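2024-03-11 09:14:02 INFO queue: dequeued item E-selectin, len=599
2024-03-11 09:14:02 INFO validating residues
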Amino acid sequence: MDLTSCTDKSPRCQPSHAAPSNGDVQCSQGNAIGSECSFECNAGYQLEGEATSVCQENQQWDNSAPVCRPIVCLPPHVAPADGRMSCSDENRANSRCLFSCNVGFVREGESVSRCQDNGQWSSPAPFCREIFCLPALLSPTNGAMVCTDDVRVGSICSFECEEGYALEGNRRSTCNEEGGAGVWSNPTPVCEAITCLPIHVAPANGEVVCTNSNFFASVCEFTCEPEYFMIGDDVSVCGRAPSGGIFGIWSNRAPVCQRKSCPPIPVSPVNGQTLCSDGNFVGSVCEFICDNYHRLEGDYSSQCIEFLDGTLNWDKPVPTCEPNLCDHQEALAHGVIDCTKDNFATSQCNFRCTTPTYSLYPPESTSNICQNNTEWNIPMPCCARSCPPYAVMDFIVILDSSSSVGDDNWFKMKNFVRNFLDDFSVSPDASHYGIFRYNRAVDTDTQILLNDYPNDIDALLNAFDEIPYDGSGTRTGNAINHAVDVMLKEGNGNRPGARDVVLIITDGKSQDPVAAPSQRLRDTGAIVFVLPIKPPQRNPNRVITLDMDEIVSMTGSEERVITAAIEGGFDALTDEFSVEVSNMICGNPCDHVLHTHEG
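2024-03-11 09:14:37 INFO prediction written
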């Protein structure tokens, strides 16, 4: 209770002013007339209404009591885009608003703004500006770049190079914030060309061709000259090294061109030597030379060549050097041979006859020497007896008894033959005789075979004397066939080791062919002589001549045609002429040595 009012009844203003909420009031005289009340608000509040109120005479306050309203800053701050805001008391007086930006953004403005008592913010709200790493990174030359978020903070740019290039530098760069600015963690790397070292060069005696020098993926192909072969691979490719980097690695080492060669040089033949033009390399020709008195058996040279299958070898085998040999000299019948080196070159053979009545022929040929040209310096002699009388032969006499001969001439012919036969010795190691006459037919009744009188010349001559003269016709071809088919048969005494000699005595042209029978005769190995006799000229009006072509066809050679009686006729068949014919038939005494051999 206001005690004054009980005691003081003076006019007053009712109700008295009370302090506003969140404020205070001071009155000069309470609520008495004339009292002035002053209002104020607590900090953070402001008066809404008049700050004073006076109690008037009418006992009314001239102003209503004000209200303390909270002070606020308008407009209220809001969080910046891409940022955050935190206020201590929203937008009321003395509220502090703190501002920050998200990662990748930087604040533009104050970080704190205070709501002042005047309702104004101490600073405007800031904004968040996005941070960029500038300048932007570029893709490296010969490479590519991929960034996760362009040039913004946190963006990671990755780099890679094209095939054949390697990265020099960091493979990644990150956009970082440093002092409100964007900074790349690493500069853009460089894509360097991958190269392989060393650069392939042509091997000695070869060539190399590369598609792109020593750069990545370059293919180098190697070749060797024709006379060389390759050791190693013929292709090498430049590729990446396992560890990466700008230095690559060749897939293969450069090969080597080695000269093609055959197996070792052929060894020199025994008793010889080898001379090669270029060792055992391909194309080399090795010549083989034999020592003196030796001859080469095989090829004179061998060349190192490459065969179709690629193998290398000598095209010819090594020959042998054989001693130079003369033909082997057969055993000396009726004598001995003593040689210093058999039949080898430089060997000297000495000859000596051991059988009585046999002597060397030619007499001066007592020795011969095997020369380096494989020929004996002189032929081997023989041990022979003198001819006549000694001649080892099976002698066949064919007598023409045609009518043109006549009795007188037949006698001359037989006498000539008898003297001829008597010049030779008849024995197993000398001469055997076979004799027959012919005209149109062969007289087989009186023929003498080779084995009829092998040891008795007297009996032979007696049988010869009994051969008659008669007949007509001249079938010489038939007579020659008889000599082949009968007289020279082994069963009739023909000896394999004795020489066969046939003497044909005729005075006329044959009435049958003689060429084929004569060839048959000579094919047996027989030596054929013909004694053509000019026939008697009984008719002066008819000239009879000899057919010399026919006669030569019988002997096979003009040398064995006995021509002395061609003009002289039967009168030429003298004893002297008989000796000449004997010597002619004897020829070389060595042809009349009996050899024991099969025919």
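2024-03-11 09:14:37 INFO annotate: The radius of gyration is 76 Å.
2024-03-11 09:14:38 INFO item closed
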